[in-house]
Each structure stands twice: as structure tokens, then as C-alpha cells.
Amino acid sequence: MAGYSHAMRATFHVLAASLLTITTTASALAGDAFHLGYAEALALARGRAPAILIARGREGIAGADARAVAIYPNPSVSAGTSTQTAKLSVGATLPLVILGQIGAASRAGRADLATVQADTLVTVNDVRAGTAHAFVVLWLAQRTSEARTDAASVTQRLEEAVRGRVEVGSAPELEVLRARAERLRADADARAAADLVGAAAADLGRWIGSTTTALRVDGDPTTPDEPPSFSDLAARVPNGPSVRREELDARAAEARADRERALVRPGLVLDLAADIGDPTLPATNYRGQLGIEVPLFNQRGPLIDREIRSAAVARLRARGEATTLLSDLTVAYETFVALTRRLKALDTGVVPAAEAAARATEESYALGRATLVTVLDSERARIDARLSLLETKAARANAWIDAERAAGQP
């Protein structure tokens, strides 16, 4: 029943993913945007990402294998007749697996299942990080498109102001050409930024089992305001899913070695038979014998040695994985700390100053106190500062996602 329930759950996840694909595709065809928040995108990926569905399917296979190794062998029944001796001979042969072979095989099967389950957690961790990065890419594409659209509207307003000044004779005709060129450039940047939103939406869609360019994100990626303690994050690395998977793989290899040792033990076979209607005998003859497999030529030494060496290699992989993840965590953490400082400087100083300078320069131009070149330069500085702020937020979020992945965030 457990295997049946697991299969039903896997089928449900597949159907749910198909339903999401149909729904979001229909929304895209209808021109409707499908909005997702950060937590909602991660939850959808956890339940519907194709890689996770495949991993859960592998769990079902491993669970069936773990149950199959504990199956007791079937007995053999025979019947025959003879013209000179017994009219009817019946017999049964029953394998006696009573020296721990099935128990050892069952433990090995459960250990292999635990490894596959840990591998699913690794997949969940990787999918979470991939989904989060894709969310950040779409978030940055949307915000960049908004910033470029805003810049295009500013250049449109500026071109109209320049045209008005030229018409009254307070500005040379050349300034109209400059303003128009800047407006055309801003419009082209805005269109290119808008086109990239659909590409980023498609990338996010594949993590949640959807094929549409109509996905849009709401809100910002979730990141802490201040960097957390590095020691707290580093302490989670040895218990992360990828390190844990290698350790469980080592235990599974040791369990398989125990299974091979158990298979060296003698195999017993019980034979029971009866001869009925034999004219040479006064009554029915009953026979019984016990056969023993003698492990004379096959001690399974190479197989045992292989599993022991596999366990040693798996433990080396676990240590190597822990070292790699700690290095990844250090890089991501230090990057996050540096970008946090940069974000504060941009958000509280650079961007407000650039916005104020652009507004003041535009007002000065309207009063005839600033040149058009100065206005255009200040507008470029404003949009550059705003884009720098967005890119820093995105890079900071990506650094935190990498830190969570290295620390084993589920």
C-alpha cells in the first residue's frame, strides 16, 4: 500500500504540473500575465519542477527495490509415477534462508533507499537555488524595463521642452536634433529591455513546469537586511543535503558489503518426499533430507572489497563536498556583505543625489540657466545610478541565494 500511495502522489504531482502548464499557456495566449511572488515561485518549483518529480519517481523505484530484496524464495513441488516402484511420488523442496541473508539484503536495500532520498533533497536544494536565480533575473528585467521606460518618457518630455524653446527662438535648431537623438536612443533601450522580460519569464517558467513568456514577478527577492553570522551558516554545511548524501552512500556501501558477507554463509535446502503405492514396500515411504551449499569456490571476496572501497571513496567525497561548499559559502557571504554596503551607499546617497541633480538641471534648462548637453548628461547619470542600484540589488540577492544553497537551505 505504501508503494501504491507513493505512485498516486507522483501521479498527482505530474497532473498538477500539467495543469499549471495548460493554465499559464492559456493565460499567455489570452495576453494575461501570470504573477508570482518570491515565496510562491519557490513553493511551485518544490512541488512541480520536473527534476523534483523525476527524483521522487526514483524514490519510488528505490523503495520497491528495498522491498524486493526481502522476498523469500518460493518452494518447488514435484510429482511423478513409476511402472515398477511407487505408483505416485510427491516431493517439495524448500530453501531455508535462515542465516541472516535476507536481513542483510533488506538493510542494504533500505540504505540504498536512504541515499536516493538524500539525493532528492539535493535536487530540491538545487531547484530552489535555480528558481530563485531565475526569479531575480526576471525581477531585474522587469525593473530595468520600468527604468528604461521612465527614462524614455523623460527624454520625450525634454524633447518637447526643447522644441518649445526653439519655436520661440531661445534655443538653436541643433538642440532639437540632439534631443530627438537622445529620445530615439532611450526608446530603443526601452524596447530592448521590454523584450528581455519575456525571455527571463520563460527561464523562470521551466523551473515550475510551465512554458510561457507571460510570467511576471511581484515584490522583491527575500534577503536579510543585515548579513547573518557566518559561523551559524558554516555550522550547517556538514549537515547539508549534498554532504549528507555522500555519507549515506558510504553507509549504503557498507551495508552492501555486509550483504555480500551474509551471502557467503551456507544456503540450506530442505527436501521432503513420499513414495505411495510402492509394491516393494509394506507402506508409504517418507523421505527427508537437508542440503547445504558449501562456499568452497566463491567467497565473494572481490565484491566485498569493492563495496568497502566504495564506502571509503564516498567518505572522501563527503569531505571534499564539505570543503567545496564551505569555500562557496565564504565567497557568497563576503560578496553579500560587500554588496550590502554598496546597496546602502547607492540607496541612501548616490541615487537620491542623481535624481535631485537631474531635476535641478532640467529646471535650470527651462529657465535658460543650463545647456542641453548638461541636461542630457545629468539624465544619463540618473538612469545609470538607478540601474546600478537595481543591478546591485539583484547581485546581492544572487549572492544570498548562493550562500543559502551552500549552507544547505531546504
Question: How are the SSEs ordered, and which strands pair?
Answer:
Elements: H1 2-29, E1 34-37, H2 38-48, H3 50-68, E2 76-80, E3 88-96, H4 101-167, H5 174-207, E4 215-218, H6 230-236, H7 241-264, E5 268-276, E6 285-292, H8 301-366, H9 372-407
Helix pairs in contact: 1-3, 2-4, 3-4, 4-5, 4-7, 4-9, 7-8, 8-9
Descriptive notes:
With 410 residues, this protein is of the alpha+beta class. The chain is 71% helix and 10% strand. The protein is built from nine helices and six strands, in the order αβααββααβααββαα. It has helices at 2-29, 38-48, 50-68, 101-167, 174-207, 230-236, 241-264, 301-366, 372-407, and strands spanning 34-37, 76-80, 88-96, 215-218, 268-276, 285-292. It has a four-stranded antiparallel sheet with strand order 2-3-5-6, with no helix packed on it. A two-stranded parallel ribbon has the order 1-4. Strand 5 (268-276) and strand 6 form a beta hairpin. Helix 2 (38-48) runs antiparallel to helix 4 and helix 4 (101-167) runs antiparallel to helix 5.
